[in-house]
Structure formats: C-alpha cells, structure tokens
Amino acid sequence: MLFSSCVAQEGKSILQIISPLVLYSINEATPLTDVKRPKDQLKAHIRAQNQMLILETSERVFARQGLAKTTTQMIADEAGLPKANVHYYYRSKKDLLEAVLERILRLWLDSVSEFNAEEGPKLNLTRYISEKIDQSRANKNASKIFAMALIGEEAFVLDYLRNLFVTELSREKATIQQWVAQGLMAPVSTEHLFISIWAMTQTYADFDAQVKIMLQKDELEESDYEEAKHFITRMVLAGCDVKG
Prior knowledge:
Layout: H1 2-8, H2 14-17, H3 20-28, H4 32-65, H5 72-79, H6 83-89, H7 93-111, H8 120-138, H9 140-151, H10 155-181, H11 190-206, H12 208-215, H13 222-239
C-alpha cells in the first residue's frame, strides 16, 4: 500500500510521503549499541566506586597496621564489603598493595610542578618545597606506606623508582645545570639535593608523632607547616647559594 502511494505521487521523495509518525521514529531511533550503553556505564561506575573504596580503605589499614600485618579480611571489614568482593578486583594482597602504591606514586608525580627553567631556581625550589609539604600533610597515610615499602624494599616500588623517578630526576637535573651555567646558583649534586628535600618535607608525615613531641603539641597547626616551609626553603636556597 505504501509503495503504490509513492508511485502515485510524483515529484515527492519517499521521506515526504511516509507518515510524520514513521519519519519521527526513523530520525529519533537509537542504535542498538546505544541502548546497552547506560547499563555499561552503570557497571563501570559501580566498578570504579568499589575500586576507589577498596584502595582508600587499604591505604588507611596499611598505614595503621603495617604492610606485613594487614590482611584482605581487615580491609574488607573496614570497607564494609565481603572479602570475595575485594578479591574480585584484586586477586591477592600483593596485587592490592601494588595498586595502592601505584596510586600513591602517580598522585605524587601529578601534584608536584615540573621545574620551569625560565622562572629561575629561587621560585622553582620555593614552590617545590611548599608543594612537598602540602602533599605530605594532605596524604599522611600515603607517605607512611611509601616509607614502609622502601624500608621493606618492595620490588614494585624499587622498579617504579628506577623506571620513572630516575627519568623525572634527569629532566630536573638538566634544568639545574642550566641555572648553574647561568650563574644563578652554585654547582650542586642534584641527587643529594632532592634526597635532602624529600627527607625534610616527608618527615612531617612519616614522623609526625616525633614532630608533635618536639613542638610539644597534640596536633600540628597551619602555622607549623608554614614555618617548616620557610625554614626548609631558607636552608635549601642558602645551601645552593641561589641568587636573587
């Protein structure tokens, strides 16, 4: 019936002849793949939420109990999940620890600015020290886990440092050498400079209990962290003989 109607009405296209309701259905039709998409997005969202919950809970438990004493059952209990759910995403405690450590290391790399050669050493070193203090303060558990992993010589962390941190350090070393050549600072060992900065800044997270005792405080305040930033910055700038 539709075909004969089309033939009878010369000069009109098939889309002009088809009823408006049918035309609307054709234009607004959703591909089959798109019909499934909301379900897939929901599953991905739930998966991401569960993984984030497990990782954040693991970070707290690892920092509190230590790497050796922590069990996946402890993590499951604190997260309010069945142990089987934890193992659904992470087959073993080792896999879970590596996921936590990778998250920590990526967080650290992403939260600290790269050196900008044009801005000079004073601004860059001041900003770097400030960001490291802020980072340690905001992520105390992460810093403690990283320290534990280093002390225990966890292979994952050591390999990560060799493969990524060494590359990062090489880039910053080239910038520092440029500043030295420009007479903006004295020649220094880049490796020892960064080791010293890491040690001074991370102690406010890794050994915050010691800091509290030394300052005779139950909790560290904003002013304590700011004072630490200024003190460490003065030491580093003076030690590197930074000009300006």
